[in-house]
Amino acid sequence: MNEQLRAISKLDRVVHEPGRLMIFALLGAVKECDFLYLLHETEMNKGNLSSHLARLEEAGYVEIEKTYRGKVPRTLLRLTRAGRVAFDQYRKGLKAAF
Amino acid sequence: MLTQTSLYGKLYYMKDELQDYMHRPKRYDNIDGTGEMYMGLMLQGFALLGYLQTILPRDSMWRTNGFAGLLFMYMILIPVLALGYLARRMIKKHITWPRTGYVAFPRDKKAWWTGAAAAGVLGAVIGAILAVGFACLTMLGREHHGMMSLARAGYLAFWVLGYAFWIWRMGRVHRWKWLVLLFMALGLFAIALVVPGGFIELSRPVMLFVGLTWLGSGMATLYLYIRHNQPPAPETE
């Protein structure tokens, strides 16, 4: 296996999945956002987005906070420190692959 | 070999997509046109300041370049900027966030102060270079008419290029903004033909016109945003 393939094989599989990578890219650029914003930007359906977020929360990469705005429920999302580190390492890994 | 090439191709595409997604939150900040409206309002503030200074008596202390003049500038600009800030906040809270979602940007105090200091220094340096350049061109313009025309053209091009950069960076999805740019360029050309004098005389109608154009463009963006985005029905997430 050459250097580039080795670099690719080292990429974090949790981050590498395209849907989750979109979430990482969006959350990586903000302090926090709500579920509606991710839904709007990723154009995924609610079920799909929820399952990706649940997977990321399970891995400790995303923090999910359920709040209310008046009587309307609002889900706030932010990357944890571990999430930011994982995303940075993923980007470095991707760069190394080229 | 073919598989490996295809894998790299896919990864390369992914890398580009990733970059695009990382820039989306910044573009989202102006999805409702509030950034443009704020800029427009700020320029209106400068235009107002310029016109107020023309109607003040020549020996008024508010027209001096000293402390009173600076205070007068803040007295005009701070309420205008505060109004813009509040309007922007209200639009975000009551129109944008319920429709397409809430986003908060990181506010790292250290990074903010470093950025602000760097922007201040860079702004001062660019301002000084432009001021010296324009002063030289004004002096030369008294002797050579062509130089003044060239300097005026440069000054007007600055506003057109500024708006073009904004469209390219923030509003690429709205192709009609390129027509607004054309309108701005033609309008500035017409102003340059009608208004005689140096930069000070030219800057007042230019600020007013450019500010109104930014404001109008922002309002049109907001109108289109409201038309195309309805708030979703509340349900569990």
Question: How would you sum up this structure, described in words?
Answer:
The complex is a heterodimer of chains A (98) and B (237). Chain A is of the alpha+beta class and 98 residues long. Chain A has helices at residues 3-9, 13-16, 18-28, 35-42, 46-58, 81-97, and strands at 32-34, 62-69, 72-79. In chain A, strands 1-3-2 form a three-stranded antiparallel sheet. In chain A, β2 and β3 form a beta hairpin. The model of chain A has no long low-confidence stretch (mean pLDDT 89). By secondary structure, chain B is an all-alpha fold. Chain B has a domain at 26-100 and 145-228. In chain B, α4 runs antiparallel to α5 (145-170), α5 (145-170) runs antiparallel to α6 and α6 (177-194) packs antiparallel against α7. The longest helix of chain B has 35 residues, at 109-143. The mean pLDDT of chain B is 84. The interface between A and B is medium-sized, with 34 and 29 residues.
Supply the key terms.
heterodimer; A: alpha+beta; 3 strands; B: 237 residues; mainly alpha; 7 helices; globular
User: What is the number of E strands of chain B?
Assistant: 1
Query: Count of helical segments of chain A?
Result: 6
* Uncertain ranges of chain B: none
Please identify the structural class of chain B as seen in this structure.
Answer: mainly alpha
Largest interface: A-B, 34 and 29 residues
Overall mean pLDDT of chain B stands at: 84
Largest β sheet strand count, sense and barrel closure of chain A = 3 strands, antiparallel
Tell me the major beta sheet of chain B: none
Distance, first to last CA of chain B = 45 Å
Query: So what's the overall shape of chain A?
Result: elongated
Number of strands of chain A: 3
Report the principal-axis shape of chain B. Answer: globular
State the assembly state of the protein chains. heterodimer
Radius of gyration of chain A: 15 Å
Helix coverage percent of residues of chain B?
Answer: over 70%
Poorly predicted segments of chain A: none
